[in-house]
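Re: your question from the hallway

Yes, I did run it. Sequences:
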Amino acid sequence: MDWLLVLATLLLSLTGIFMIYSAIHSNPVFLKNSLHLKQALWSSIGLCVLLCILFFDYRFFTRWAYLFYALVIALLIAVLFTGHVVYGAKRWLVFGPLRLQPSELARLAVILVLARYFGSREEEEPMGFKELIPAFILALAPALLIVRQPDLGTGLTVFLIAGAMILAVGVKKRVLLTIGSVAIACAPLGWFFLKEYQRRRILTLFNPDADPLGAGYQSMQSIIAVGSGEIWGKGLLQGTQSRLHFLPEKHTDFIFSVLSEELGFIGSVTVLALFFIFILRCLSAALNAADKEGALLAVGITTAFFLYIIFNIGMTLGLMPIVGIPLPLVSYGGSASISSFIAIGLVLNVSMRRKSLTPMFG
Amino acid sequence: MKEWPFNSNPATSDALKRRVLIFGICFSLILLGLFIRLWNLQVIQGEKFRTLSEDNRIAYRLVQSPRGMVFDSKGELLADNRASFNIYLIRENVKKLRQTIRLLSEITEQPFQELYKRTRLANPFRPFLIKADISRKTMAFLEEHKPDYPGVFVQVTPLRQYPSREKASHLLGYMGEVSNRQLQRLKKRNYRQGDLLGQYGVEQTQERFLRGQSGFKQVEVDAYGRELRIVRPFVEKAGNNVYLTIDMELQKKAEELFEAHEGSIVILDPSNGAILAMVSKPSFNPNIFAGGIDAKDWKGLMQDPLKPLENRAIRGQYPPGSIFKIVMGFAILNEKIARSDEKVLCHGSFPFGKRIFQDWKKGGHGPIDFVQSLAQSCDVYYYTNGQKLGIKRIAHYARMFGLGSPTGFGAVEKGGLVPSDAWKRRRFKERWYEGETISVSIGQGFNLITPMQAANLIATVANGGNLWKPYVVEKVLSPDGKPLFESRPRLIRKIPISQKIFRKVREGLKEAVHGKKGTAKKAQVPDIFVAGKTGTAQTVDLKYTGRKRKPEELPRKFRDHSWFVAFAPYENPTIAIAILGENAGRPGSFFAPYAKELISFYLTKNEQQILASNKTTEEKRLVPRNRVPRARR
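Structure:
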């Protein structure tokens, strides 16, 4: 058991619960619903799920990867037709009291399915185009369905995770160069497929004054919040940026701004360091894995966490466009928390079963 | 954790391990980038941002432009906005909370405990509404004692008001806070939580015209979020003004006449379907909704057994009784069941199978022709000819005149019911009995119509067969007077029946008012001819109540509905009226004098207006289109 990884996870979740309380304490509606306690509940549930996952060998999960993948694709199609609309995007499926966000599952499905696909590959030399095409399709199908919702941020991360896993398996230099140059050439074309608000968000990255009411305003206010924390911070519950409602989505997407404002450089760097340890330990599970499948599983999950961390923190520091991506383990959100714990469970699983034929409780 | 942070397993290939290590280095470098950014923002530029955050007082505040006004066809104001003074409190700034709340609970007459609890739950930094729409006296008192109670302040916000109160309330409707479901739909159109929007009547249907534009102003706020000055104002754009076809004076007259009754009056301009007045009683006062309705008031309205919120004119469905004989008349003549001069001998009863259908007049009307059958409302005439027509043809003619389906006036309108063989099979899985046809012939049985349909029926008779779609919005003007919408009369259908038959039916209706034996003589207006028809609709079979009982002895729901429909002037109709007394327990003729009052009121007013407009050609008085009598189309 990688206790350092577990410790980092627990500390980050605990920080999340405290910061959520701080972010919502000036909002009577949220406070009445005790979102911070709910988050604590989600984390506990997540922890239980994590423990359950440890009992099974990770190869049990990869064995069912294709079925799981097919199910997720079906859910993604269903959400396009019957999804629950929130903020103009269809992302949720509603089953009675349960609301499910299939795009959260899609990430995991793509990681599992690619780990399985490449894991069964025997030869050692880098891959050519031919081998890449099926993997490409496996990654592209859910990514496009998510982009259709529209949820560009998540769709893009799914695609990037797949890319990272392909790179880890290794591709021929020629292939790498071709894909790289095509991607660069296509980038301007992609601009035309973006929606108006998505373009605006990217533009404001370069010129925050362009849209002072929308994305630019939020980005500016977040930077001010972070910067004004200085070294020691304004103190818990003392952040003026958050209590005067200059910050949007304080308890979800902008939780890191609240943290930086109230706990200062000391606090924000501590959290960053925790994430650093977290990421390295996850990669170490990959290095350590018993087989290729396990290694790729860990690489995929690490990349996913890493992308979420830098997208979210980058956004609060004005380095990334404003996309609705939460900070793993820290931001408020039931679906996101539980899926994070599931992912961590899989990584721990890989690191636990480092010898090829580890018995169940070995 | 031997080789921290990386320990490796010999089972995995070296190439893979190398690539994972490269990943680790890339990830670490990017995280280092975030670290540098944090260092830069919080340590190097920290002081600058601290000052910025302390000065960060430019907030965006929502501004809602005033809602458009509603006028009647003569320009009388029906709905506008007034300033209301609201008390707010910012808890953070209050020195002695208990004491302050005690004072506020006294001057606003709210229970202390409840107000205190609500205040404690509110956001301490944001203005919290203590009470909306306080009196000037209270406001003066607060302003005077301002220094003693920091954190309490008064703000002015616009509030919807309806000067004519209960009058035309079902038409005008009311405002209410946007519901969560509506918000889902309206978010794109700039609606926010807590916004008010029209929830009923014209306020609802014309919402998109009436709503003023909302937007943000940039204001400088202090550390507690209080506004200090406006940095960039939001240029207000008021909502558009809606002009209705109704004549408020006529509406008021109708409301006053009907004060003591339940039911509805609908008055139409037969030349185009414009609604001149629409009364539904009991009514409600839309002003109580303006600033958010009290739970107590709402409960009262919802639990009132007479359902004051229901617009009976378009949602009340009643058996038509004898006014259905108008439709029957058209069917009989057009299907050539009888010639208009053919007489039926009425003995006062009509035996059919084992049953005997009674005429309302004991002893009967004797030999009676078509015109007199309408004038005297002879039941036996219609029993006889109705049986010959059969239910299929009766239903066909009823539908032709717009019965059985909504007139198209509004989305919430009910359609009434035209019974037929097919309908009964569907509804009751039972065949149609011929005896039922006989009941339907005099407007009893399953027949149901709304007052709006009755008015449209009589208007169609008046204008010679144009079934217009009733409408109430005449035009919409932008605040600077630009026309945004102008109504155009819409023909539902032209009734395919000859004018000769229309003249005969109208003659029958005129005889009902002016004939020696007419049932509606009380509707006579001096100098002009009026045409009308009474109707008494039984709510329950006589078996249960017995013929002899007086209405007062019956429970309300068993009392008869009373109808009266009329148009005038006979030769060139400019007004068509339908009156319904819900469970009035009176014969239809009871409301004939009401129609008389309304007709003479309207025609006199109209005449004076025409005279006035003819006299002053230079000064051109504006007479709305629908007010000028026109030749029949």
